[in-house]
Design brief:
mainly beta; Jelly Rolls; 6-stranded antiparallel β-sheet
């Protein structure tokens, strides 16, 4: 798998984003009409924060916190992590990438809105956000981009798209994409979204690939990796989950 481009790159935003808006407070996914996947919220720290500072926010469902495009911590609804310590927050840019991990549809959570609420640093609310939504329903524009480079292992500078090609000599049949060794992300075969993978969380460690999505001859696999790229940068197909 070869790196293509970082999600935060201006070119990637122009090609892949579904909506870009500015708001005083963070809008929900529903307000942006983003039914799933990712929304990036960005703002600047005011000048007067003391060091160290503490970021606090309510997130639905999981969020990666970056200061000056460097990973600082993770917020998580399911793990009840709602604070991240910030070192040297003075005059830095803050970016929070929120992932919708699926809607609850029962009980008190029937209206399970997604997004970011009550964002504070040292108990002071942050306002005036640049917001970019990613539906990830069309990755064809990435075909315009040649291979790039990225760090291996933990992705400190944000998610990255990677691309690989493989050939099938006979009539394609159903198979499974094995994701163990990678972090967390979304996979696409020949432009079709296969779904999300998160092998460390499990229990699912592979994605089903219908034979009807495959071509006899050349095929393309693209992934958006959020957290971790192994040194091998390789994935494999197998006959069983």
């Amino acid at each position: 798998m070869q790196p293509i481009i970082r999600l935060f790159d201006p070119l990637a935003r122009s090609l892949i984003s579904s909506i870009i808006v500015q708001r005083k407070t963070p809008p929900t996914f529903e307000e942006l009409q983003i039914p799933l996947h990712l929304v990036l919220y960005e703002t600047n720290f005011p000048m007067h924060y003391k060091n160290p500072a503490t970021l606090e926010a309510v997130v639905h469902d999981r969020a990666y916190v970056y200061t000056d495009v460097h990973l600082t911590g993770v917020l998580s609804r399911s793990h009840k992590i709602f604070t991240v310590p910030l070192k040297d927050a003075y005059r830095k840019e803050l970016a929070i990438l929120v992932e919708n991990q699926g809607h609850l549809n029962y009980g008190d959570y029937i209206k399970d809105y997604k997004g970011l609420w009550n964002v504070t640093v040292n108990k002071e609310h942050l306002s005036f956000w640049n917001v970019t939504g990613f539906r990830l329903n069309n990755i064809k524009p990435l075909s315009q981009i040649t291979n790039s480079s990225c760090e291996l292992e933990t992705l400190q500078r944000g998610p990255v798209f990677l691309r690989g090609h493989f050939s099938i000599k006979e009539t394609p049949i159903d198979t499974f994409l094995y994701t163990v060794g990678w972090g967390k992300g979304v996979a696409f075969i020949n432009g079709y979204n296969l779904g999300r993978y998160w092998p460390l969380a499990g229990p699912q460690k592979s994605l089903y690939v219908p034979g009807s999505l495959l071509n006899e001859g050349k095929n393309e696999l693209i992934i958006l990796e959020l957290e971790y790229v192994p040194k091998s940068r390789s994935m494999q197909f197998q006959t069983a989950p």
